[in-house]
Design a protein that fits this description.
- The complex is a heterodimer of chains A (about 300) and B (about 280).
- Chain A is mainly α and about 300 residues long.
- In chain A, helix 3 packs across helix 15 and helix 9 packs antiparallel against helix 12.
- Chain A has 15 helices and 2 strands.
- A two-stranded antiparallel sheet of chain A has the order 1-2.
- The longest helix of chain A has 28 residues.
- With about 280 residues, chain B is mainly α.
- Chain B has a domain of about 170 residues: MetI-like (MetI-like fold).
- Chain B is about 80% helix and about 0% strand.
- Chain B is built from 15 helices and no strands.
- The relative contact order of chain B is 0.13.
- The chains are: A mainly alpha (about 300), B mainly alpha (about 280).
- At the A-B interface, helix 1, helix 2, helix 5, helix 6 and helix 7 of A face helix 1, helix 2, helix 5, helix 6 and helix 7 of B.
Chain lengths: ~300, ~280
């Protein structure tokens, strides 16, 4: 209160003698950082330490690596990890599609804003909504198959989410549908900010569309493409819970066809009342995410332009 | 110059092909939304007979059924959780970012590095300890525990984004204020904040999007029926109306509407927010 009053005094009537100038109250950065520090230390610091402790205990007693041994040998956990690994194959597809869209949008004069909004729309929709809508459309007798049959394409009318051999592929396609807009916007923003001299020179020399973009633009987009790829890899390993939960009623089904590590952790902790096993699985998930985080920093420090620097 | 832009016949074909690809992909992006909205306006019979057509006999029965279910309550809950957590996050993050940007202190860069890596820690990893903590306090099914957790999760990105912006404010302006004897609080309030409108809006929009769409934590922390958020509500909703697709789709449209409105009014902030982590001018 006092400092506010002093401030008001100085603002309205600066000391003419100049004696008070520069003599101002300052407590340094700590009061400013304190509230955020408490929040982050609670949500991240406390949780990570507590998680690590729990993963080595069973009902409060130290059991060493037993929880980890149980989790790693659980066939369901192995399946879940395998599915996360399979989902990683969507990353190159996402990168290629996003790059293609961004370049096409960049080259289009007419209707660019419309296409941009359209491609971006899926990224905006809540995943639960996406999951429910696709879940309905992709039923055996859902809108997609009704349409395919009407066009005489019966053999393409698969049981998209009900067939164990098909479900994970369908899930990947939906994730691609949703995530590609993010990459397109990222790459397009970078494309627009690139210096134009090189492109113009190439155009004068008669370089065609493919030559121009493969040889000139794409190399300059390296850092943003890597950023996007690592970002999506992290999504595939540890942020796909929402899709699976909504489209399979929290089961990861049919059977265990779409079981992923996050759902395994969720179910161990909250349905099977085995928080110790869930904690061990969570530690393993965190370690695998860490690899990507390290990759993230490597990319950042290597790239000249700096992904995170100004 | 003119030589480079002369269109050969092959180039013209190329342009057409590229245009067609764009149209095709735009259509694929829009179709599920189209089906969601048209289905929400049909009757179950009409949807099953003509799933792809425009609604020939538009009816609002689906919306009535969805609204008479628990949508108003879920909607309110989502509003409380989202506005509470985003408001707190932006305020706390702005303060912290000022602490990072204005003063140089030992370890500052390392702390910022840690913040960046916290951005990718999956929430499911933090869930178990946080849930047990909430249960110990008897705070399960209260908004305050969820808001606390949301704030914590949104802080790293928020602080990071604002710190970068605050650092770009010319030091001469701030020094001038300080020489005139302005306190830290006054410099922050009267100089830094008024200059930071766009990044603050961008941050608010990005966080709103995240908090409104969040499912996992809301699912675990808000277990009682009265406290469910919209995203938790709609995942259970589809099972109860499996015989009325129009009702389900009406519910989904209602759940998306706030985002669509926010997007239409703040499109450039969305784009700015999403690219702010990755793309910086050189």
């Amino acid at each position: 209160m006092t400092s506010a009053a002093t401030t008001a005094y100085h603002a309205t009537a600066p000391d003419p003698s100049g004696a008070a100038r520069g003599r101002r109250r300052s407590f340094g950065p700590w009061p400013w950082i304190l509230p955020a520090g408490i929040g982050i230390l609670f949500v991240f610091g406390y949780s990570l330490v507590d998680l690590l402790q729990q993963s080595f205990k069973y009902r409060g007693t130290w059991v060493g690596l037993d929880n980890f041994r149980l989790v790693v040998t659980d066939p369901l956990f192995q399946t879940a990890i395998f599915h996360n690994a399979l989902l990683l194959f969507t990353v190159p597809i996402l990168v290629a599609l996003a790059l293609l869209f961004a370049i096409l949008l960049f080259e289009t004069r007419r209707g660019m804003r419309f296409y941009q909004s359209a491609v971006f729309l899926p990224y905006l929709l809540p995943i639960p909504v996406v999951g429910v809508v696709f879940g309905q459309l992709l039923q055996l007798n859902g809108a997609l198959n009704l349409g395919l049959r009407a066009l005489g394409l019966q053999s393409f009318a698969l049981d998209w989410l009900g067939d164990p051999n098909q479900a994970l592929v369908t899930m990947s396609a939906i994730i691609i549908w949703k995530e590609v807009g993010f990459g397109t916007i990222l790459i397009l923003a970078r494309l627009i900010s690139l210096p134009t001299e090189l492109l113009e020179a190439a155009q004068i020399d008669g370089a065609g569309f493919f030559k121009k973009h493969l040889k000139i633009t794409t190399p300059q987009l390296r850092s943003v493409i890597l950023f996007y790829a690592i970002n999506e890899a992290i999504v595939m390993v540890s942020w796909v819970f929402n899709y699976v939960y909504v489209m399979t009623n929290g089961q990861g089904g049919p059977g265990d066809a779409t079981m992923v590590s996050e759902l395994y952790i969720y179910r161990s902790a909250f349905q099977n009342q085995a928080p110790e096993l869930a904690a061990a699985a969570a530690v393993l998930l965190l370690i695998s995410t860490l690899f990507f985080i390290i990759g993230f920093f490597k990319v950042q420090s290597r790239s000249q332009s700096g992904i995170f620097d100004e | 110059m003119s030589r480079g832009f002369r269109k050969t016949p092959i180039a013209k074909v190329g342009v057409t092909v590229r245009q067609l690809i764009l149209i095709l992909f735009a259509a694929m992006a829009i179709v599920p939304g189209y089906l969601m909205i048209t289905a929400s306006l049909k009757s179950q019979e009409e949807f099953l007979a003509h799933p792809w057509s425009l609604p020939l006999h538009p009816s609002l029965e689906g919306y009535k059924a969805a609204w008479n279910d628990q949508f108003p309550r879920w909607f309110t809950n989502s509003l409380i959780v989202t506005s509470g957590s985003v408001g707190l996050t932006v305020a706390i993050a702005a303060m912290a970012a000022w602490g990072f940007a204005h003063w140089t202190w030992r370890g500052r860069e390392s702390v910022l590095g840690v913040l960046v890596s916290l951005m990718v820690v999956p929430p499911v990893v933090l869930l178990i300890p946080l849930f047990q903590f909430g249960a110990k306090l008897g705070w399960i099914s209260t908004f305050r525990i969820l808001i606390m957790v949301y704030v914590g999760l949104m802080l790293p990105f928020s602080i990071y984004l604002l710190t970068n912006f605050f650092r770009a404010i010319p030091t001469s302006i701030i020094e001038a204020a300080e020489i005139d004897g302005a306190s830290d609080i006054r410099t922050f309030r009267s100089i830094v904040l008024p200059l930071s409108g766009p990044p603050l809006i961008t941050l608010t929009v990005v966080n709103l999007l995240w908090a409104w769409n969040e499912l996992l934590l809301a699912l675990v922390f808000l277990q009682s029926d009265e406290k469910k958020t919209l995203m938790v509500g709609i995942t259970g909703f589809q099972n109860r109306y499996s015989l009325s697709i129009p009702t389900i789709m009406a519910g989904m449209t209602i759940a998306t509407l706030p985002l669509l409105i926010a997007y239409i009014f703040g499109q450039r902030y969305f784009v700015a927010g999403l690219t702010s982590g990755a793309v910086k001018g050189e």
